[in-house]
Amino acid sequence: MVSLSEINEELSRRDLFEFSCYTFDKIREESNWFHKTYYGLLQLFFEGKLPRLIVSVPPQHGKSEGSSRRGIAWCLGQTPNKKIALVSYNHTFASKFNRDVQRIIDDPKYQSIFPETRINGKNVVTVSSWLRNSEEFEVVGKKGSLKTIGVGGGLTGNTVDLLVMDDLYKDFADATSPVISERVWEWYTTVAKTRLHNKSQELIVFTRWSENDLVGRLEEQGLVHTLKEGEDPIEVVKNLPRDSFIKINFEALKESNPTDLDPRKMGEALWEIKHNEEKLNATRKLDVPKFEALYQGNPKSREGLLYGEDFKTYA
Predict the structure, then answer these.
(1) Are the C-beta atoms of 302 and 289 separated by less than 8 Å?
(2) H helices, E strands: number in the chain
(3) Distance in angstroms (rounded) separating the CA atoms of residues 123 and 111
């Protein structure tokens, strides 16, 4: 007779959301339809079906847990030969993701699900030739690895199969600084892109801050297709140029038409039990332009907003 743990393990091997719930109970307790959809999109990315994906998500909605912790761990279980690089706004923050992924892989539950994916360390294996520190680790007996760096860090000598970019800007001041915006763009074009090959994948997940952030710059270059109502992302990607991204934006408060990926009615919150309509509308009143960027994924230039959006003129 098959045990419950065996059923959970088999489901976890097949499905990123089930894996995440099984290895972190809090996800199942607090998640809603959005998280299942989000994790489903991430799974399509990690499986190579959406090779270049942008997902814009409001703050504190579980974005990084899926992309930069559970997702990477699940991917290395599925494909332990993948060479993954994860980038965040600085080295310290990026290293936290690396340590979190290591803890997930070390967990006995993970080892039961993916016994072929192991990293050197206590209670795992003892092979001194395999690298493991807070910035990088290698999968024992395989070609796979995870390297984490901050924007501006080097990837010299590293081939990257899968590049994850999560929160490339520390805060509003950084994201709206022309100097930092240019630095991020130069790092992406002269460092990150040079380590990718024909089959490499790119994932961008972060809260929008500015028209001139990385997503905005890619849009200016004509390299982003925003998924429209009724479009199937799998079908769309077949007709896109190789370097183009598919972009999906989840608004904190629904203001666009319902779609298969986001069926909410107008005005509904994305994650009601954590951030309800009352809280979000109160936040919006404090600073409308910032709310539009951070929570709605719709950054607008402040040029011409000297008097604010509500300033009235009279004939």
Answers:
(1) yes
(2) 14, 8
(3) 11
